[in-house]
Batch of 4 targets.
Target 1
Amino acid sequence: MEHYLDNSATTRVCPEAAEAAMRAMTETYGNPSSTHTLGREARKLLDRSRKQVADALGCQPKELVFTSCGSESDNWAILGGAEAMKRKGKHVISSAVEHDAVRKSLDELEARGFEVTRLKPDGTGAVPARAVAEALRPDTVLVSLMLVNNETGAVTDVGAVSRAIRDAGSPALLHTDAVQAFLKVPFTPKSLGADLISVSGHKIHAPKGIGALYIRSGLRLKPYIVGGGQEEGRRAGTEAMPQIAAFGAACEIGRAGMRESIERMAECKQQIVRRLSAEIPELRCVPTAAPHILSVSLPGWRSEVLMNFLEAREVYVSKSSACKKGGRSHVLEAIGLDARSIDGAIRIGLSRFTTQEDADALCQGLIDARAALRHN
């Protein structure tokens, strides 16, 4: 029996999203820009899907632009936001534990002459608001911090960061990569005080290939992709209607059951921690607030060996971000874990479909792996 616990990498598409995508491909298949009946029906579907996602995010539909993924949303927010503000300065604040979609966008900004301050996180991967306040300068024009860290589950108080920016009288825009937080940790653009928010479909049981960027009303960014006038002239290209319809359906379902899902995942996470801590004394666990991400380590054993042992039992986890190929986790290095702990770390990702049987299989698999490895 399969036990999928790599939901921070991607999630299984829920039936409602799959059905919505199929209908968009086989029934409402017109181009939303066409003026005939099929085109108008597709436009209605586009508008309805946008509202479903906007309602789940807590914003107005007009503030939401569909993108191809969270990485595109991050790239556009950071590169476009910095360029929009460069007349006021060229200093950007971020952290040492961001996703590569943010890190490499920051590298690009540096190549364009911007100066980037990468703040050190605390021991869980969260970035203290006071660190941002201390790093602000008169020429700071953008702050970009992940809401939920994708490797540890640490939650940064982005609302407090927003208040620190305002208290300092800074004009800086605030962007947050909320890909791992969306429908897992309660928030709205208003509660965060963010100008730009990136989200992704395949982390919430929609297909891969669809994301969105919240752009605060009144903030104008140059289009990241130019061509036609789609998305109110903000992003060219015929809209990916099957993915968009599926994203909307997944958001509607996820929003309706969000509270129950969070409670279930949090309890499952706690049960895993309790059992593993009791039966594997040397286990190291990064304590974090997000209900669905857990980073644990068995110092002295390689992550790959543990993952292979678990995979033989059809238990699937990862060792860090799925987007990172090779090398040690920059996140775990930044929070101060020693090399032995990093080399033995695995990431457990829960979802609303995670069962007690999945958690039990994971725990028993790690307990048995430890015993087998010690014996050998």
Target 2
Amino acid sequence: MPATGLDVFDTTLQKSNSWLNELMDLMGWQDRQRAYHGMFATLHALRDRLTVEEVAHLGAQLPMLIRGFYYDAWDPTVNPLKERHKEEFLAYIAQYFKNDPTVDTEQLARAVFAVLRSRVTAGEIEDVKHILPTEIRELWQ
């Protein structure tokens, strides 16, 4: 039986859960809420370092539900941030896990990027990586 009765919502729920399941597998997590926070934090850290145009291009390839939290609280007038270092990128993610210091933010960023790499076109991933500073780009490997 459909969860919502609307195909478009049921489809995005299914796709979004699939993305979170992949992240949970990569991180060895059982907690879907933790995976959501990890995806949310990492996508925001990434989004805020992209040009407005590239934010839109990447957003267009995300499932509707994930796209919604990707754009949540986004202010295109301040993008991209000028931070150039991996430590600043990871510190941004870490602030979402203040009460969970066991989260390895570098492992998390790499895992979210692996999910993106498996579900977004290769050309779009290359465009995103090209915009990022070298230290942050290295997290995609």
Target 3
Amino acid sequence: MNSKNYSPWQLWSLVLLRVAIGWHFLYEGISKLMNPDWSSLAYLMDSEGWFEGLFHSMAGNPSLLNVLDFLNIWGLILIGAGLILGMFTRIAAIAGMVLLAFYYLSHPPLVGATYLIPSEGSYLWVNKNLIELITLWVILLFPTWNTVGIDRFIFNKYRN
């Protein structure tokens, strides 16, 4: 569906949603970058559920942990900037979905799961990571960046 078929309210609501999620990603990345003591070690070690062993093994490898921390910080920043600016938005949305899937699988909201890192609420199967992942899927399915975003200028020559 072309964003020119959206009503102004639909278009700007989708753009607002894209920018809000972009801000969340960008701010999370910058806050991690600005904290010299930040590491994903505690988060990975706190993992439970189906992939607990995988996340614990990632945390147990210092070289891999450094790479993961770098990718996490800069992934959050670049995904956030891409979503806010509407620049390489498809890539940003897909990368954001992958990152959120890892967060979700690391700390799935399962019955009986207890985490040392405090949660913002009580969840069962659905948490904020899953909701944001699904929202990025909606953003991917209802593109606004070809009307409101830098992608409009980058990819304009490829449109009819």
Target 4
Amino acid sequence: MLEDLAAFRTQARGLVAGHEARITLAIDIVAPAQPLTAALVEFARTFPMVEVAILAQPMDATLDRLRRGAADLGLVVDVPAPGLFEGLARVRCGTIDFVVVAAPHHALARMRGPLSAADLRDHTQILL
């Protein structure tokens, strides 16, 4: 009972200080796990009584949840699409290197040296 009472007091102090009791984090499924895990560990250390709900989903669903207020914070991979983030505040928190791959028999795989954007332009790309 004493441990429960101490936990209750800690949570009550957090609420009085303006901390949320629960936050919902919507995450784009292509976001890398390692930096997110490190951030969540530090968050739990700093705010031990704040419950974190994590929703992993495609980027469009993540942005939809943010716009509807169904998530407090989102983590998405930025893509150059006009208006995609309209109405949302954004802060860059890192970079990701994407690697384009092709089957060995594909025309791009047979090209030597680094490929340019012009080399890629006439080929279909599948992004997940």
